[in-house]
Amino acid sequence: MGGIPNTVRRGGVYHFRRAVPVGLRARLARSELTCSLHTHQAGEARFLSRCLYLRSEELFVEVESAPMLSDEEIAALVKDFYSTILAKDDHHRLMADAPDQFRAARADHYRQLAESAKEHLAENAYATVRQITSAMLARRYGLDAKFDKLSVRKVSHAMLRAGVEVAETLRARAEGDFNYEPQDKLLVEALRERPELPASVPITAAAEMPPIVAGPTFTEAAETFREEQLRRKKWERQTYLQARATYSIFCDFAGDRPLGDYVRADAGRFKALLEDLPANYSKAVEFRGLTAQQIVEQTRQQDVLRLSSRTVQRHFAALSTLWDSAIEQGAAAINIFNDWKFAAAKRARDQRQMWPIELLQALFKTPIWAGCQSEHRRSKPGTHIIRDDKFWLPLIALFSGMRQEEICQLRLDDVRKAEGIWIFDIKEGEGRQLKNRNAIRKAPIHHSLIRLGLLDYADQMRARPGNLLFPDLNPGGADNRLGHNYSKWFTRYRRDTALYVKRMDFHSFRHNAITFMKRANVPDSVVDEVTGHETAGETARYNKGLTIANLKEAVDKIDIGVDLSRLYQYT
After folding, report:
1. Gap between the Cα atoms of 39 and 48, Å rounded
2. Which of 105, 131, 216, 565 is surrounded by the fewest CB atoms within 10 Å?
3. pLDDT for 379
């Protein structure tokens, strides 16, 4: 023991070790507590061991004081769960008709749900029913009730078993069979007769607690939530508008009810609807005035592009955040939009292409950089080279990896020197929109941009009123972004010059810059620091030690494979 209680040494490193009292081993599912103290020093190990000993004492007291649920109590929870779901199904059946295709979809959904529950049961995947387990325990014993780990796992196991039977029962009902009898012995015995609970259980407290607060209807809750998200600046306006569309589709499909009245099956049916929706459902003239359900029925036999998995997930995310808020306010017990599986999204490199060298060479031979007719005829060949935003934005993106909006919103004082090196100072501030905290950085200016005259251009702009590097950009779109109108113009320009390729756009320049640096053997962590990507793990801490000179060296390794010497103002 090396003179230090509750420790052993393994390879020179101290480890904490303490036996679990015999009476608690079943509930903790282990006979001893062990962990590495990550130290070779005896003094430090003695202190850490003492801290863990005291914490383990607290753990043992906590487990001993937490009630252990009996088999009868677990059976009562199972019966409550089963009966509640079937009662909700009865209620929904009385509220609306079920067309043939709707019933078939429900039956198929519940069949898949039963198979999924069986898989989770075989894998002991208790996390998949964590929310419903917590909700059922809170419903019966109150929100403040505490239970030992073993009891919670036993309830979760029982909920999975009951979940299989719930799904099978609802499948049978969807097929017109209301005489289906559960097969699982646990549920069969629980349904025979509700067991009497021991007198020590606080039944009155549970009985006084309503299962779910009715709360506002979906449309009321959704509108209040959207406005609050926008007011607190948790959402940008584009997200706010996207959520409105999501909530409208869901309400049309599932009806306008209190949030606590919806069940997971509603979410499953909505997922199936979204996956069958044509990708152009909101834009095509032939779909105007139709509900999402009607559009799906109209196009079911057609070979059309459907919503991508990523878009379906975005709809679910909007609903999931609403349900999380409702749970906090007591208007719902569980989040029915959590823990759904979606088809694998396309790899990022398949979603948006980088520009091939040949097309980059062709781009910089077009009138913007080779000579245009005039300021308003930029796609027509001529003799004028106008060094404004249309000239500079693609060049900056290629030679820095900056995002479009980061470039568009640059202020004149963002072009400055740091540690003797010219940089773009990308920072937060009024009127600025950054993707995340990682976007805040100092991006060194590539030597080619300096040779092209970017610093002279900045000086010219300083002589004009205002503080924007590109003052001619006009904001637009839902979030009032400076790059909104430029993006539309750049699409038109590529079409006018026969360079339009689907999924190869302005953002693709960022992919080019990243790829060019990696080809030059710049470490991924340095590339992330230059471009404002998040670096995972311990490497992120070491990135903080990178100097501007380190980053400048990486940026200057970007070689876009295009001869721009005819445009240089400095050699």
Report:
1. 9
2. 565
3. 94
Amino acid at 365: K
What is the pTM assigned to this prediction?
A: 0.48
* DSSP element (H, E) containing 415: strand 415-418
How many angstroms separate the CA atoms of 47 and 68, rounded? 34
Q: Per DSSP, what are the bridge partners of residue 14?
A: 9
Q: Does domain 350-567 have CATH number 1.10.443?
A: yes
Instruction: Give backbone dihedrals phi and psi of 544, rounded to 5 degrees, phi first.
Output: -65, -20
Which residue, 13, 60, 62, 4, is CA-closest to 36? 13
Segment 365-409, tens digit of pLDDT: 999 999 999 999 999 999 999 999 999 999 999 999 999 999 999
Mention every residue, 6+ apart, whose C-beta is less than 8 A from residue 378: 367, 368, 372, 386, 390, 493
DSSP state of 352: S
- 8-state DSSP, 428: -
Cα first-last separation, the chain: 72
Q: What are phi and psi of 254, to 5 degrees?
A: -105, -5
Q: What share of the chain is helix, strand, coil (3-state, %, to 5)?
A: 55, 10, 35
Query: What's phi and psi for 309, nearest 5 deg?
Result: -60, -35
Kindly report which listed range (84-93, 152-161, 316-325) carries the lowest average pLDDT score: 84-93
Q: Quick one: which H or E segment has residue 13?
A: strand 13-19
Alpha helices in 232-283 (DSSP H): 237-254, 264-276
Looking at residue 448, what is its pLDDT?
A: 96
Confidence of residue 447 (pLDDT cuts 50, 70, 90): very high
Q: Which residue type is seen at 185?
A: K
> Would the pLDDT of 542 be above 60?
no
CB atoms within 10 A of CB 447: 15
Give the whole-angstrom CA distance, residue 137 versus residue 73.
Answer: 10
pLDDT bucket at 540, cuts 50 / 70 / 90: very low
Q: Fill in the amino acid letter for 97.
A: D
Pairing of strands 13-19, 441-444: unpaired
Which of the four pLDDT bands, split at 50, 70 and 90, describes residue 102? Answer: low
Query: Which of 186, 192, 180, 188 is CA-nearest to residue 111?
Result: 180
- Cβ-based neighbour number of residue 131 at 10 Å: 17
Domain layout of the chain by residue ranges: 7-65, 71-190, 218-344, 350-567
| Per-residue model confidence as pLDDT tens digits over 191-236 | 775 444 443 334 333 333 334 444 578 999 999 999 999 888 888 8
* Lookup: tokens for 509: 């320049």
